[in-house]
């Protein structure tokens, strides 16, 4: 699918603000793919579609999680976490994207996961550092991203966990698994 067609599909699903964020993620993902030797077109498409399900109703997402036998633990956690796996499902069903490399980058963009593919890392990181993001620590992660993809993903995961903890929010187990995997198995971290 070409960029223009993908953007047209996604624009209908998102608010203006979220669409602008999506353009930022796409631009950043392209840059990271060029730098770290991933498929640039796939990185762009995954980024364009990553928040496809962001504004779906909670009940619709809950039903898809159940029907498609996704991780049951998600139901006990904040529904903000649901748009990533539900998005991967809907992008396949409604937009006809079948490339599993792209779908998995969408599926894991919020929590990461152990043993991430390069494209998963790129979309995860691009979502975190796209130019519209402004929160404490983001500039440091941007700088690290210029040096090492793995170091930057780890820094983003760490910041996310510490942010959730500082607000006394629960941390989804897969987010912690991602962190542990980087610490225990990560090269170049
Ligand atoms: O969809 P975006 O806002 O672009 O970004 P995202 O998909 O990375 O994150 C969506 C939300 O999910 C964000 O408000 C933080 C939250 N989140 C991320 N990881 C965890 C989490 N919430 C909980 N409870 N636990 C997590 O591990
Ligand atoms: Fe998201
Ligand atoms: Fe996003």
Automatic annotation (TrEMBL):
GO terms for molecular function: bis(5'-nucleosyl)-tetraphosphatase (symmetrical) activity; metal ion binding; nucleotide binding. Its EC number is 3.6.1.41. Gene3D superfamilies: Hypothetical protein af1432 (1.10.3210.10). Pfam families: HD. Residues 18-132 form the HD domain. Keywords: Hydrolase, Iron, Metal-binding, Nucleotide-binding. PROSITE patterns: HD. The keyword Nucleotide-binding applies. It catalyses: P(1),P(4)-bis(5'-adenosyl) tetraphosphate + H2O = 2 ADP + 2 H(+). PANTHER family: BIS(5'-NUCLEOSYL)-TETRAPHOSPHATASE, SYMMETRICAL, SLR1885 PROTEIN. This is bis(5'-nucleosyl)-tetraphosphatase (symmetrical). It comes from Domibacillus epiphyticus.
């Amino acid at each position: 699918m070409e960029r223009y067609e993908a953007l047209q599909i996604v624009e209908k699903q998102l608010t203006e603000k979220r669409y602008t964020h999506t353009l930022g993620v796409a631009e950043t993902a392209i840059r990271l793919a060029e730098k770290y030797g991933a498929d640039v077109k796939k990185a762009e498409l995954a980024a364009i579609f990553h928040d496809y399900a962001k504004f779906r109703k909670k009940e619709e997402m809950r039903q898809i999680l159940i029907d498609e036998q996704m991780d049951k633990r998600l139901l006990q956690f904040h529904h903000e976490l649901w748009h990533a796996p539900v998005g991967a499902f809907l992008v396949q069903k409604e937009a006809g994207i079948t490339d599993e490399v792209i779908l998995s980058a969408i599926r894991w963009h919020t929590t990461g996961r152990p043993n991430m593919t390069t494209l998963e890392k790129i979309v995860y990181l691009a979502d975190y550092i796209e130019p519209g993001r402004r929160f404490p620590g983001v500039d440091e992660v941007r700088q690290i991203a210029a040096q090492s993809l793995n170091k930057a993903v780890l820094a983003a995961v760490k910041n996310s966990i510490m942010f959730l903890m500082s607000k006394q929010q629960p941390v989804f187990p897969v987010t912690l698994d991602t962190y542990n995997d980087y610490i225990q198995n990560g090269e170049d971290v």
